[in-house]
């Protein structure tokens, strides 16, 4: 056989371009981590040669004696494009080659791999299979010179019978991998194109009588508390579950009292399946999934999905993930109150599902299928609507279900993602229903829901979700389908697009999920930024995105839209999500005037009562705890609410703040794990709430001092601790600190959500802002006026080419050591765009590198994404205030700030008190520099610290894919008043 493609005009196409899923591979079977049958890992350093086209290759390399001394080496599992051969490429929906299914281009990078191995001395001999966990996108395989077959279906396992071909020593495995194949048309997921053998390669001994297939059926009847177990198996054998006293023949069923499996309490019973040739450990979770009464139910209860979409990705290794990374992902998810994963958009490494069983996650497992690139072509020639592709589609469905059917965590199968509609999908659904009637089916792409059991949408806005919750949404045309769909539960398979700074509006979605039983939650898009780790020639590290590898077609940083950064540090979006989806809601109780005397604890778990949590309270004055204790909360069932008394009013030192205002008092109530779990230690915080508390008794403080009058002395204009430029009225120093005067600022470096266009007629907020000139506002000083009490500076702030402006009055006053600024803003002319921000911008010395503040923290927060901002005293360096979004953009604002101190190493510096509370941002570069940067390494610290004291910010929204900023979070140009007091920190 040769790898040469047929000449043009030939009617047959070569194997990698035919529509078949392949030939020669064994039928799929369940994956399990191990058994008593021997396994040999073939991972490691392999020999490798890359050819730019298929035509350049012949099959001489498959001969065992072939001399590969001149070849390079490659790590398997891995992707050759991440190991110095060729380059990765990113497209969202477009196929990176001409669309002519099933044909692919001549330029088809082809990687030939060779691996020589010996069998261990104790290798049992007899039947064995060669196991490939995943190869992108088409592989042809030879062992010891004999061809085994070829396969497509990148994220499915494929196995070949190899027993008779094996020798004790000097086996040579040869694998030819084509980057492009007919299979590529079915794998148009929004991610990097990363060819290679990216999952493990193993040899499995399959002794006579070993398990060819087994299916664990373990249901739970919530009305009786009994679980029913039946394990079917080929060949027959016995099943034991010692802790349940079970010893059964396969296919025999037994019903016993059990604790059910749920994502909240993932009880697994250890068992064993024994056939004449093999003993397989089983981990059995009893649970029953059903769609009944219009709800998705597990063990008889509606569940609420607090989910994320998870792609497999690592910034160094691409989709070749190790188990440690999988476990870390899951631990982070659990610790952030997440309970569900959609395996977008392909079966994950199966070990991930073992971990989901063990740690507790509801999993929607998706087949490796997406044909999104056909949408731009009006879905012409869409493979899912062409019977010739049906074997390939069915093969993908089969390989998904057969490999992973024994996982209790998998509660739904998903046909695929964004394939439009077609008979191929129906054929997959029919097969899946027959094979596994125990799990509902999901697919988002067909609004009629003809083949599915749940109604699913992506990125529906809040209003649409509310209509669906009320069952008043626009129905599909067909009356029968409309009636059927109206009775289905609803999930958002994608929402809250986490690209860059955002998403905003998560709390509002959660409120809908908690209000309407039909709305059963969803999966935020997505878990992780897929930025690839790179180093500049100067040695600075950064994460690369689409276009950084010379791709002729690409979708830039749309691949970086996750809740965690590529290196898996949480982004503020994850912290926000954790707070929003918390399974216990802590709010103020009581009614009427005055601070609350009770706290309301709502148990939002689906199954668990509150006995696993310990509650505590703290009484804090301006962020300093003055008293704390434990809060006794009665055992409250899932779905129930308890109202608990707070301790009697406490006395605490009061006094006044630096600017003469009174401190505030708050209760902070926290719920932490009472005992360690498999995913977090005792004391891990699950939920919290803050409630206003009675103010401290003593509300007197030192008088601020009599007002001071402004003075002109020589070239300077002074007012108390402030020094001003007499011509511009700009502050040049305060309390001995050189500053570059606060002036009005409305521009922010647009976020990915700001930048998003939704079509030629709607280029998005950032484009509208730029058109309005908000990034090039000019300041004119109209008046610098002195009176005995105040210095008043009037300015007009406007952009070239427009008569829309902001009139600003700065009224400066001083008392003793304090310098106070009251700002009044009045728009003039017609404003057709919201403002990105409204506040003051100033520069201070770079040495003021430490920040302490009382306000929201510790992380950033924006108007529609600040649920996680906790009122308290926080401290950080200026550098650590930055959020390193892969594409630099507005970030780092701390919301609800009452006062902040910027200090240098010796502790001296500047204090700013704000009324009302403000957003504080401090960075070592300007907004213009931030706006211009494309990668984090484009930003270099300047000499000064740039401060933004914002009265308001425009919301974030989720417009990079989904709804924009909700009306209540839009920052409309309107009259505004706000004030700041500047003083020294000594
Ligand atoms: C969806 C798609 C995802 C991803 C997302 C945007 O349409 O299913 O794969 O592309 O949009 O990031």
Automatic annotation (TrEMBL):
SUPFAM superfamilies: (Trans)glycosidases, beta-Galactosidase/glucuronidase domain, Galactose mutarotase-like, Galactose-binding domain-like. One of its GO terms (molecular function) is hydrolase activity. Residues 722-983 form the Beta galactosidase small chain/ domain. It is an enzyme of class 3 (hydrolase). Keywords: Glycosidase, Hydrolase. It comes from the Bacteria. It holds the Pfam family Bgal_small_N. SMART domains: Bgal_small_N. Its EC number is 3.2.1.23. Residues 1-30, 692-714 are annotated as: Disordered. The keyword Hydrolase applies. It catalyses: Hydrolysis of terminal non-reducing beta-D-galactose residues in beta-D-galactosides. Belongs to the glycosyl hydrolase 2 family. PANTHER family: BETA-GALACTOSIDASE (PTHR46323:SF2). This is Beta-galactosidase. It comes from Streptomyces catenulae.
């Amino acid at each position: 056989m040769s790898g040469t493609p047929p000449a043009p005009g030939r009617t047959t196409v070569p194997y990698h371009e035919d529509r078949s899923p392949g030939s020669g591979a064994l039928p799929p079977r369940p994956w399990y981590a191990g058994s008593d049958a021997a396994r040999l890992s073939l991972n490691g350093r392999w020999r490798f040669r890359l050819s730019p086209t298929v035509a350049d290759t012949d099959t001489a390399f498959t001969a065992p004696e072939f001399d590969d001394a001149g070849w390079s080496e490659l790590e398997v599992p891995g992707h050759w494009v991440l190991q110095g051969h060729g380059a990765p490429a990113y497209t969202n929906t477009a196929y990176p080659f001409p669309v002519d299914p099933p044909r692919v281009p001549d330029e088809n990078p082809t990687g030939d791999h060779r691996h020589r191995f010996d069998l261990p001395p104790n290798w049992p001999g007899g039947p064995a299979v060669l196991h490939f966990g995943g190869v992108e996108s088409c592989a042809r395989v030879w062992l010891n010179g004999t061809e085994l077959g070829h396969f497509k279906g990148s994220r499915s396992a494929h196995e070949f019978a190899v027993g008779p071909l094996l020798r004790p020593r000097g086996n040579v495995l040869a694998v030819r991998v084509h980057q492009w194949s007919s299979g590529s048309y079915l794998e148009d997921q929004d991610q990097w194109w990363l060819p290679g053998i990216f999952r493990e390669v193993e040899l499995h001994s399959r002794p006579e009588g070993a398990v060819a297939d087994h299916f664990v059926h373990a249901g739970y009847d919530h009305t009786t508390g009994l679980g029913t177990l039946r394990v079917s198996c080929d060949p027959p054998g016995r099943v034991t579950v010692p802790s349940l006293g079970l010893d059964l023949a396969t296919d025999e069923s037994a019903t016993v009292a059990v604790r059910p499996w749920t994502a909240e309490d993932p009880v697994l019973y250890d068992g064993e399946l024994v056939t004449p040739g093999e003993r397989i450990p089983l981990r059995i979770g009893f649970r029953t999934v059903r769609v009944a009464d219009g709800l998705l139910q597990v063990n008889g209860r509606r569940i609420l999905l607090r989910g994320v979409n998870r792609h497999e990705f690592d910034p160094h290794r691409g989709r070749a993930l190790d188990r440690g990374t999988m476990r870390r992902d899951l631990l982070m998810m659990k610790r952030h109150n997440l309970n569900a994963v959609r395996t977008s958009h392909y079966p994950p490494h199966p070990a991930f599902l073992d971990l989901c069983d063990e740690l507790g996650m509801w999993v929607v497992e998706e087949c490796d299928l997406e044909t999104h690139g056909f949408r731009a072509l009006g879905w012409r020639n869409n493979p899912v609507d062409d019977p010739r592709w049906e074997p390939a589609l069915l093969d993908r469905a089969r390989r998904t279900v057969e490999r992973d059917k024994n996982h209790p965590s998998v509660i739904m199968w998903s046909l695929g993602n964004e394939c439009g509609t077609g008979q191929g999908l129906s054929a997959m659904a029919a097969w899946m229903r027959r094979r596994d009637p125990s799990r509902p089916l999901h697919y988002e792409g067909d609004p009629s829901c003809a083949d599915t059991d749940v109604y699913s949408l992506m990125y529906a806005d809040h209003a649409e979700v509310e209509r669906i919750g009320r069952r008043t949404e626009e129905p599909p045309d067909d009356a029968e389908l409309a009636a059927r769909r109206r009775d289905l539960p609803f999930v958002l398979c994608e929402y809250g697009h986490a690209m860059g700074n955002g998403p905003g509006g998560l709390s509002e979605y959660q409120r809908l999920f908690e209000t309407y039983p039909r709305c059963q939650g969803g999966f935020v898009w997505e878990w992780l930024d897929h930025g690839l780790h790179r180093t500049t020639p100067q040695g600075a590290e950064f994460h690369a995105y689409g276009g950084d590898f010379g791709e002729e077609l690409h979708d830039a940083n749309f691949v970086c839209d996750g809740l965690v950064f590529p290196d898996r540090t949480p982004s503020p979006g994850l912290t926000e999500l954790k707070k929003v989806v918390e399974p216990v809601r802590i709010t103020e109780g009581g009614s009427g005037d005055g601070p609350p005397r009770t706290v309301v604890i709502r148990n939002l778990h689906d199954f668990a009562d509150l006995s696993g949590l310990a509650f505590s309270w703290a009484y804090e004055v301006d962020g300093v705890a003055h008293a704390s204790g434990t809060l006794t909360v009665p055992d409250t069932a899932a779905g129930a609410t308890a109202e608990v008394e707070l301790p009697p009013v406490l006395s605490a030192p009061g006094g006044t703040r630096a600017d003469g205002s009174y401190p505030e008092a708050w209760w902070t109530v926290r719920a932490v794990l009472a005992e360690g779990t498999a995913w977090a230690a005792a004391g891990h915080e699950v939920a919290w709430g803050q409630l206003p508390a009675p103010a401290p008794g003593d509300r007197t403080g030192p008088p601020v001092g009599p007002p001071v009058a402004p003075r002109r002395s020589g070239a300077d204009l002074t007012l108390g601790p402030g020094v001003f430029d007499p011509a511009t009225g700009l502050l040049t120093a305060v309390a001995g600190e050189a500053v570059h005067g606060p002036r009005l600022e409305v521009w922010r470096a647009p976020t990915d959500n700001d930048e998003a266009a939704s079509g030629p007629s709607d280029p998005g907020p950032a484009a509208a802002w730029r058109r309005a000139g908000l990034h090039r506002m000019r300041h004119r000083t109209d008046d610098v006026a002195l009176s005995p009490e105040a210095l008043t500076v009037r300015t007009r702030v406007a952009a070239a080419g427009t008569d829309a402006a902001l009139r600003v009055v700065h009224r400066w006053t001083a008392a003793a050591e304090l310098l106070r600024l009251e700002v009044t803003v009045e728009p003039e002319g017609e404003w057709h765009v919201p403002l990105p921000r409204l506040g003051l911008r100033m520069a201070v010395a770079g040495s003021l590198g430490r920040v302490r503040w009382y306000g929201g923290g510790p992380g950033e927060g924006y108007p529609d994404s600040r649920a996680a901002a906790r009122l308290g005293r926080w401290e950080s360096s200026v550098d650590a205030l930055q959020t390193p979004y892969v594409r630099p953009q507005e970030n780092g604002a701390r919301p609800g700030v009452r006062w902040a101190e910027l200090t240098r190493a010796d502790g001296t510096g500047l204090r700013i008190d704000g009324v009302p509370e403000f957003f504080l941002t401090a960075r070592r570069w300007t907004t213009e520099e931030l706006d211009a940067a494309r990668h984090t390494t484009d930003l270099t610290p300047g000499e000064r610290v740039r401060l933004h004291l914002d009265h308001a910010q425009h919301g974030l929204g989720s417009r990079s894919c989904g709804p924009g900023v909700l009306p209540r979070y839009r920052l409309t140009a309107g009259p505004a008043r706000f004030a700041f007091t500047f003083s020294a920190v000594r």
